[in-house]
Design goal:
Rossmann fold; 339 residues; alpha/beta; 12 helices; globular; 2 domains
């Protein structure tokens, strides 16, 4: 007797999520196994009622899967939380374990996508591409204010050398940069490429360009604070394509005002859940700190698009669907996360 379709409520969905997930379901032959129900809203304690009766929920980076949300999910019959991302900082893993809910994720999708976007931010800030684009469109072909520097020969520091950090190191070495890194668990591939591992303090002091590729943990929360900024080279270029809360925004604002931070490129922001992935062009930006960041000509912010390539979205969807199908069939997803 065929099983009842496994109901999966997918939150924070955009048209591209629906397209790639539905395609992955068809590719995996799960069309008669999975009942995907898409919700535009974020999953949190206020919206969790939408998932009442679901066997699983599928969530993204700005969903708030706190203990209260998990309690209501469990009461509604949910057995699986499937993250379609690598980070798990927005899920209370202990609460999930206590309620017997399995958590899984997509550990890797396209490290090249994020690494390449990181370099795009570096090049744009350095060569003032954003300013040049606007000036030329207005008929201004002067070069005043567009001076950059050769990346060749500069020292680039990377905090976190997982797959994304490794990919970034490879690109920067190709530019002729000297690459330093900090990671509690050095990556042998990076060492073989010629990356030098140093202390965090030495990394800050030596880097002309500093890029954050680390996960958000209690140890990395506000890793970049006032003390860290003062340890950095004056006029350092700071890039964050990891998680927003790795940076203390107020400390970075002070660093920009003092000139200690010369330029800043962000693809993530600590309070991004009320901003990113939404069109606020006809409204206003409710976050005063974010609005202040936008006043600096040496700041570029993209809205968490580092992962946004065809290859990455395909892999995310395929891995997510595989996780769910595996759990439905044998009770164990492919990439389970435990406390």
């Amino acid at each position: 007797m065929p099983k009842t379709p496994f109901r999966v409520d997918v939150f924070s969905t955009k048209p591209y999520d629906i397209h790639y997930l539905q395609r992955a379901v068809l590719q995996k032959g799960g069309g008669d196994q999975l009942d995907l129900r898409f919700h535009d809203s974020h999953l949190n304690a206020r919206t969790v009622a939408l998932a009442d009766g679901a066997d699983a929920v599928c969530v993204f980076v700005n969903d708030d899967v706190c203990a209260e949300t998990i309690e209501d999910l469990a009461a509604g019959g949910c057995k699986l939380i499937a993250l379609r991302c690598a980070g798990v900082n927005n899920v209370d893993l202990r609460a999930a374990e206590a309620k017997g809910i399995t958590v899984c994720r997509v550990p890797a999708y396209s490290p090249h996508a994020v690494a390449e976007h990181t370099v795009a931010l570096m090049l744009t800030l350095n060569r003032k591409i954003h300013k040049a684009y606007s000036q030329v469109r207005e008929g201004n072909f002067a070069l005043d204010g567009l001076m950059g520097f050769d990346m060749h020969g500069k020292t680039a520091g990377i905090v976190g050398t997982g797959l994304i950090g490794e990919g970034l190191a490879r690109i920067l070495l190709g530019f002729g940069c000297k690459v330093l890194a900090f990671d509690p668990s050095p990556n042998e591939a990076c060492v073989a490429m010629g990356v030098d591992y140093v202390s965090l303090e030495d990394l800050f002091a030596a880097s002309d360009i500093l890029s954050l590729q680390c996960p958000l943990t209690p140890q990395t929360h506000h890793l970049i604070d006032d003390k860290a900024v003062l340890q950095m080279k004056r006029a350092v270029m700071l890039i964050n394509t990891s998680r927003g809360a790795v940076i203390d925004t107020q400390a970075v604002l002070r660093g920009l005002k003092s000139g200690h931070i010369g330029s800043l490129g962000l693809d993530v922001y600590q309070e991004e859940s009320s901003l990113f992935f939404e069109d606020l062009s006809s409204s206003y930006i409710p976050d005063d700190l974010f609005a202040r960041l936008l006043t600096f000509p040496s700041v570029i912010i993209t809205s968490h698009q580092g992962f946004f390539t065809e290859e990455a979205l395909s892999t995310i969807a395929e891995t997510t669907v595989s996780n769910i199908v595996s759990f439905r069939e044998n009770g164990v997803p492919g990439y389970e996360i435990s406390v």
